[in-house]
């Protein structure tokens, strides 16, 4: 039995830290920016899509390795590096400090999940695939089609 509670978070004006700046981070950053979060990225290097968002003024970036001090003043963290060990370290520090953390590649260990979602005007459909993003996207596609949103 799943023990998750689906919620919608109002991130407008809130500091959201993204640790890592690869392709997965770029995909996760886009909805955060659209939702009005104050996105800060910490990573030694930035992927092209993340660099483009930085150039457009949509986020702030620190080109360096993560440090625990990066969590200060953060409301939500996405641990999305290519190192499972670093991601788990970030998640453990977040747990100690009562900060929501999405742990990339290990949703079953995350304190928060990102749901597959789609807006149609002011209506929102969001769906979980119980930690399986491919299943969630397939379900979202079926629901969108049933609603005539395609």
Automatic annotation (TrEMBL):
EC number(s) given by UniProt: 1.3.1.76
Keyword Hydrolase: no
Metabolic or biological pathway: Porphyrin-containing compound metabolism; siroheme biosynthesis; sirohydrochlorin from precorrin-2: step 1/1
Keyword Transit peptide appears in the UniProt entry: no
Keywords: NAD, Oxidoreductase, Porphyrin biosynthesis
Cited InterPro entries: Met8-like, NAD(P)-bd_dom_sf, Sirohaem_synthase_N
Coiled coil ranges: none
Reactions the enzyme catalyzes: precorrin-2 + NAD(+) = sirohydrochlorin + NADH + 2 H(+)
Stored Pfam families: NAD_binding_7
NCBIfam families: cysG_Nterm (TIGR01470)
Protein name in UniProt: precorrin-2 dehydrogenase
The species this protein was found in: Rothia endophytica
